[in-house]
Amino acid sequence: MKIGNLEFEKYPVFLAPMEDVTDEAFRLLCKRFGADMVYTEFVSSDALIRDVNSTLRKLNIYDEERPVAIQIYGNEVEPMVEAAKRVEAARPDILDINFGCPVKKVARKGCGAGMLQNIPKLLEITRAVVDAVKIPVTVKTRLGWDENSKCIVDLAEALQDCGIQALTVHGRTRAQMYTGDADWTLIGKIKENPRMHIPIIGNGDVKTPERARECFDLYGVDAIMIGRASFGQPWIFRDVKHYLNTGEPAEPFTFKECMDVLRGQVRDSVEWLGERPGILHVRRHLAATPLLKGLPDFRPLRIDMLRAEKLDALLEILDRIEQQYSRNGCL
Q1: Are residues 279 and 259 in the same domain?
Q2: Which residue, 155, 223, 148, is CA-closest to 189?
Q3: Residue 196 shares a structural domain with residue 319
Q4: Residue 44 within any structural domain of the chain
Q5: Please, what is the end-to-end C-alpha distance for the chain in angstroms?
Q6: How far apart are CA 262 and CA 289, in angstroms?
Q7: How many alpha carbons lie under 13 Å from residue 85 in its C-beta half-sphere?
Q8: Do 83 and 215 have their domain in common?
Q9: Is residue 175 part of a domain?
Q10: CA-to-CA distance for 226 and 23, rounded, in angstroms?
Q11: How many domains does the structure of the chain reveal?
Q12: Which CATH number do you get for residue 63?
């Protein structure tokens, strides 16, 4: 599979762009575990052209994480074009346009998935951004606004005509947010369209290596994207890649090895963001990790873990978790 001049081996697996998640530290961690391409948090075009510091920081990328895509969003042509030029100057491998974010504060402004209610403007923005930069432009979107407006099959062809070089589709409508099951049926329909020639990347509920293989086999996608399933288990990329390439499960990490990864993630987050912001940032990974689910009498320790505000205190709690459950033979 190729996107512009980027060439990927069979069964590419990408880290999805996620706000407040895919910062530099997490991207580098997922790359270490085998992610074939990583995406930044999404970048507001309006904030970028106003030189908002927190937004400018999202343009920081490193050679160790390449290939890397920077994702932008907005609802007006001129700011999106100017933002695209600034992104190009940051030298990502790909510029991705977000037409899929479903959260209210984005969609209600007509940005992200909100653009699915104004397809002519969506296509106008896409054409203008493609024409404004020399790096490959891709799009990430959803099936449609709601159950009655699943427009993705026709929209995919129209976006291709605008000059994008790959399309990622999340198998839900905006109305679904993240509820229910992702429906990959229409993603498969895009691949069945003989007029489509750009790579199609499927996204939504890829939580296991087995499901990843099904998505390639059943729907014919060129790549898959993993998002929320990476929370608290960045090693999922290792497990998925091994299964896709061998047909066999990867040798599982020990509990200690997984805990070492989480401790490293905590330290990296603090190093990149500072102590308190780094701990707040990494909490969602600790809260979501499947590693700790189902442990008996875990609730008090979980509360302590998610309330900790100092690095030493949080690391001590993680050590205590490992020692307690290993000693009791629960693992």
Answers
A1: yes
A2: 155
A3: no
A4: yes
A5: 40
A6: 9
A7: 9
A8: yes
A9: yes
A10: 15
A11: 2
A12: 3.20.20.70
Answer whether 281's CB lies under 8 Å from 20's CB: yes
| H or E segment and range at residue 175 | none
Strands 137-142, 167-170: pairing kind: parallel
- Give pLDDT, residue 329: 47
The token pair that represents 243 in the structure block: 């299964």
User: Helix, strand, coil: what percent of the chain each, to 5?
Assistant: 50, 15, 35
CB 244 within 8 A of CB 213: yes
> In angstroms, rounded to a whole number, what is the distance separating the alpha carbons of residues 263 and 254?
14
- Cis status, amide bond into 102, omega within 30 of 0: no
**What DSSP state is assigned to residue 254?**
P
Q: What angle do CA 206, 210, 213 make, to 5 degrees?
A: 80
Burial of 292 (0-12, 13-18, 19+ CB in 10 A): buried
- Among 219, 246, 273, the domain boundary falls at 246
What letter would DSSP give residue 22? -
Q: Are residues 174 and 60 in the same domain?
A: yes
Q: Check whether residue 284 and residue 176 sit in a common domain.
A: no
**Domain boundaries, position 224:** 7-246
> Does any domain span residue 1?
no
Please identify which of the residues 101, 162, 215, 258 carries the catalytic annotation. Answer: 101
Enumerate residues 6+ apart whose C-beta is below 8 A from 156: 167, 169, 190, 193, 196, 200
What band does 330 get if pLDDT is binned at 50, 70 and 90?
very low
Give the Å distances, CA to CA, from 289 to 157, 228, 284, 293.
38, 10, 8, 7
pTM: 0.95
Same domain, yes or no, for 165 and 133?
yes
At residue 202 the predicted structure's pLDDT band, cuts being 50, 70 and 90, is very high
Q: Cα(45)–Cα(49) distance, rounded to whole angstroms? A: 6
Domain boundary among 246, 263, 279: 246
Residue matched to tokens 């401790």: 263
Q: Do the domain assignments include residue 2?
A: no
Active site annotation includes 330: no
Whether the pLDDT of residue 14 is over 50: the answer is yes
Please check whether residues 111 and 222 belong to one and the same domain. yes
Q: Which pair of tokens denotes residue 182?
A: 């992702």
Do 134 and 17 share a structural domain? yes
Phi, psi of 88 (to 5 degrees): -55, -40
